[in-house]
Design goal:
The chain has about 900 residues and is an alpha/beta fold. The protein is built from 46 helices and 13 strands.
Length: about 900
């Protein structure tokens, strides 16, 4: 008999700030069978899961695993005890998995089983038992599993059904504004915004790293705290002890040696690691490190990087093991290898760490153009005396300051580089970049005749015309600028398409990518298109990881456009930081975005929007000033006719209905007919370029016209449909071959797959689908890339369903009813209804039908509560035709008829239900 430690059945008491972004991610557990929270030690897995359990309106049973609980009997005993804490009606004394499965049938409400430290069960009988439960437990049971690596049992079927949700270390990572909130509200410690950003970047948002800084910084003055930030890596004692106990001591000596040997490489590839070490085992070691969540991130199939804090600890261990001289030699060797393979940033860091300043200056000179739009944090590692004496390093510092948003300092550094007088060509290069920057700071300054001049002109008037000119000019920077101007001009769909075209361009710079991601996010948010917050998080993650502070600021200010409670406050803080750094555009955009967000929420927005208008006027950005007037009119602060006239005068009349739709959708009559307003906003709701319908009749359309599939062979059509129901994820080729060609050998199956892929691509290409859409290969998997997430009715159905369930768990019944209604409107029939019982689709078809049943129950129940009995009856009857054993719908149907006063209809419904139950028991 297992002795149960009751403390391991209690949700841990955690001190945390509410992180709405992360809360929403974890709360999706209610709409998924399994949620995995996977990250290294100290990433905040337990805190995130505990916050979820404490907030949940539904039932959550908790188990904290231990390394000694490796038997199936022990695990089942803990499972039984945990579930009886929240559902006392369950039977006691389960001993086997079969006992548990039989007992779980008694559950009558959704119940989540939260299991922490699940990695301690790895390879044990307990893990096997958990795998059986995950596969066979009733649908009412959801699993949230937190650990350092993915469980060993097979999750592929659940993944294929779209029922596996993963929260990884990137999503757990504290964003800079979340770190600021943490120190302000929980630690009660004030730090300057730039110090917070530097700290977050130093520890890569690692929760334990932020806490360690708080513990070490208590009682220190501001200058001492800033110095501590620079030391808060693997060299700080408190960090070293943590990493030693949780990362380095548990692994094998061989793997530890590999880490120390290769820490000098910023980007680690198997080839580089093997060449550096003179060994051949790097690929195996790197995969083990990444799979075990040992602060090792797989950037792609062949490239890895170590967490900055771990790398700093490893560097110290390298010096302790080899001494300074041998360590410097290893850095120089690594620098040469990285330079040869054109990893210039990492080569510069290695040469600087080795103190090889000649190599640093040579490489900074040679890689100047390539580094211009890359992350340039390496410049901060160089001694000031080295930078001050070298014109190329001064230029690099100026560029780093510009990318970080410290524009006034950047101008000073550009001038210092010019003053070194390295030659006419170098001076001209510095002057061009300084002139480009100055054109944004000083409205009277002459802009160079390139994309900057056209973009500045578009900020004054006719942004859509300027956008077309930039498109004709070509170049990735021009395309990104064109996307921003199209957004200003109100062409939301055009802005999104242009930005996505830039994102999919091979030669886009990291900075350009960050800007394009930000445009997509803002376009989605102001047009009400789904996925806006997700896109904003992608943009923020890229900007912070690459040290592009200016983009990160604009993304942070854009939080005002989301539902997050403190979004407007974040925009205000961005404005203040930009003012301190001499960045007038960041300050103006911060005020504007904050004002838009406040107006959208129904909060006071007059002061912020008028301030933004004044700032844009001072910058000679008349089109943006007019946009502020439109927002003021939509929120009722200025006359709508005056705002519309200003919009027409500057060429942004298409933006008027967009902003009205975002701020005050019921006031569209102020500037014209509602039909005209919807037509203008319709740029965001027009037929997508490439879209699929999977619910009911399958169709694929190009520009709203159905594409004939008659030219495709049956297997190719089936492949297209298989990819269409998994647009969110790539489908591995083995899963495709198993589903479509199960009887042949692997080689012929892959050949058949390639032939089918080629046929689909030819069909789409002939219909005018661009190369960046359609069937794309991702490693050994394939994915159907559509124009937007909204291009798939199935993706929209799942998103509305998830939103409805999340709202229901929060007891927000009106929101749940609204989202469930949207989901039901999209459910035109069962998944790929015309295809019959194909093996690869039956399971997901049944699951989707169950989701439809759940949505119908939410809608019908709310209709009964609000007295709309006829609507409730219609929803129940329509769904029961497909789901005759839907107990909840039968109950609501009978109740609706009774409360409506139609007792005869209620009696007939009861008789029909009784017959269904009788047939079920035959």
């Amino acid at each position: 008999m297992t002795n149960i430690a009751r403390s391991r059945l209690r949700v841990p008491k955690v001190k945390a700030v509410q992180r709405h972004r992360l809360d929403d991610l974890v709360s999706q557990a209610w709409s998924h069978r399994v949620t995995l929270i996977l990250a290294p030690a100290g990433s905040g897995k337990t805190t995130a899961m505990a916050e979820f359990a404490n907030r949940a309106a539904g039932r959550v049973a908790w188990i904290t695993c231990g390394a000694t609980d490796d038997s199936a009997e022990s695990f089942i005993a803990y499972l039984n005890a945990a579930l009886r804490e929240v559902a006392p009606q369950l039977t006691a004394n389960w001993r086997t998995v079969d006992d548990a499965l039989e007992g779980l049938v008694a559950l009558t409400a959704p119940t989540t089983l939260a299991i922490d430290d699940v990695h301690t069960l790895s390879g044990s009988a307990a893990e096997t038992a958990l795998g059986v439960l995950v596969t066979d437990a009733p649908d009412l049971v959801h699993f949230v599993l937190a650990g350092r690596r993915e469980p060993g049992f097979d999750l592929s079927a659940i993944r294929m059904m779209g029922q596996l949700h993963t929260v990884d270390s990137d999503q757990l990572r504290f964003r800079s504004w979340e770190a600021e909130q943490l120190f302000r509200d929980l630690y009660e410690t004030w730090l300057r915004p730039d110090d917070i950003a530097r700290l977050s970047r130093r520890v890569e948002g690692w929760a334990a790293g932020l806490q360690m800084f708080h513990l070490a910084a208590r009682g220190l003055s501001s200058p001492e705290q800033r110095r501590l930030i620079d030391r808060l890596n693997g060299r700080a004692r408190i960090v070293r002890e943590y990493l030693a106990a949780n990362v380095l001591e548990p692994i094998s000596p061989e793997l530890r040696t590999f880490l120390i040997d290769t820490c000098v490489l910023g980007l680690v590839t198997p080839a580089l690691a093997n060449e550096l070490r003179g060994e051949v085992d790097a690929e195996q070691h790197l995969r083990e490190l990444a799979n075990s969540q040992l602060f090792t991130v797989a950037i792609d199939d062949d490239t890895y990087r170590y967490h900055e804090v771990l790398r700093a600890q490893l560097e110290l261990l390298l010096i302790e093991r080899d001494g300074e001289e041998l360590a410097s030699h290893r850095y120089r060797t690594a620098g040469a290898l990285l330079e040869r393979d054109r990893f210039h940033y990492d080569a510069l860091r290695c040469f600087a760490r080795a103190g090889d300043w000649d190599a640093v200056q040579r490489l900074a000179n040679r890689s100047s153009d390539q580094s211009q739009n890359s992350a340039m944090a390496w410049i901060t590692d160089l001694p000031h005396s080295i930078v001050a004496d070298d014109p190329w390093l001064l230029l690099a510092r100026a560029r780093a300051e510009r990318l970080a948003g410290r524009w006034s300092q950047a101008v000073v550094s550009f001038l210092a580089a010019e003053a070194k007088g390295l030659g006419a060509e170098f001076v001209d290069q510095c002057r061009v970049e300084r002139t480009e920057l100055n054109a944004w700071i000083d409205p009277l300054a002459q802009a160079p005749h390139n994309w900057v001049a056209r973009t500045r002109a578009g900020s004054r008037r006719e942004p859509l015309i300027a956008a077309n000119e930039l498109d004709a000019q070509g170049g990735v920077e021009a395309i990104v600028a064109a996307s921003a101007l199209r957004l200003l001009g109100g062409d939301v769909r055009g802005a999104t398409a242009t930005a996505e075209r830039a994102i999919n361009t091979d030669n886009i710079s990291p900075y350009g990518l960050g800007a394009a991601l930000a445009v997509v996010a803002v376009a989605r948010l102001i047009s009400g298109t789904s996925g806006g917050e997700r896109a904003l998080d992608d943009a923020e993650m890229h900007a912070e990881r690459t040290s592009f502070g200016w983009i990160a600021r604009i993304v942070r200010a854009s939080l005002a456009l989301t539902k997050r409670p403190q979004g407007v406050d974040e925009a205000t803080r961005v404005r203040e930081q930009c003012l301190a750094d001499g960045d007038p555009w960041g300050a103006a955009l911060g005020s504007f975005l904050g004002g838009l967000g406040a107006a959208h929420r129904g909060e006071p927005a007059n002061d912020l929007l008028r301030e933004a208008a004044r700032r844009f006027r001072a910058l000679d950005a008349s089109a943006l000033e007019a946009a502020c007037m439109v927002a003021l009119a939509a929120s009722g602060h200025v006359d709508a006719a005056d705002a519309t006239a200003a919009a027409r005068a500057t060429g942004i009349e298409q933006l008027v209905p967009v902003l009205y739709g975002f701020i005050a959708p019921r006031r569209t009559e102020d500037f014209g007919s509602t039909a005209a307003a919807h037509a203008a906003v319709g740029e965001g709701s027009a037929a997508p370029l490439l879209a699929v319908q999977c619910l009911g009749r399958f169709s694929i359309s190009v520009e709203g016209r159905d594409l004939s599939l008659e030219g495709l062979r049956p297997k190719a059509r089936s492949l297209l449909k298989m990819l269409a129901i998994h647009t969110d994820t790539a489908v591995h080729r083995e899963a495709i071959v198993d589903g479509l060609w199960p009887d042949g050998d692997a080689a012929s199956g892959i050949h058949n797959l390639q032939v089918a892929i080629s046929a689909i691509r030819k069909l789409l290409s002939a219909a005018g689908v661009p190369d960046d859409l359609g069937v794309q290969r991702q490693g050994e998997a394939y994915r159907l890339v559509l124009s937007t997430r909204d291009s798939s009715d199935l993706a929209q159905f799942l998103e509305w369903s998830a939103t409805a369930k999340l709202s229901a768990t929060r007891n927000d019944h009106d929101a749940a009813h609204s989202s469930a209604t949207q989901a039901l409107a999209l459910y035109r029939g069962e998944l790929l209804a015309e295809d019959g019982p194909l093996e690869w689709i039956v399971t997901q078809r049944v699951w989707l039908s169950a989701q439809r049943e759940a949505m119908a129950a939410i809608v019908a129940d709310r209709c009964v509560q609000s007295g709309q009995y006829k609507d409730a009856i219609d929803v129940c009857e329509a769904t029961i035709l497909e789901r005759p054993y839907a107990d909840e719908l039968w109950r609501i149907l009978i109740q609706a008829n009774k409360q409506r006063g139609d007792l005869a209809a209620a009696g007939k419904a009861q008789l029909r239900y009784d017959k269904v139950l009788a047939d079920l028991n035959v």
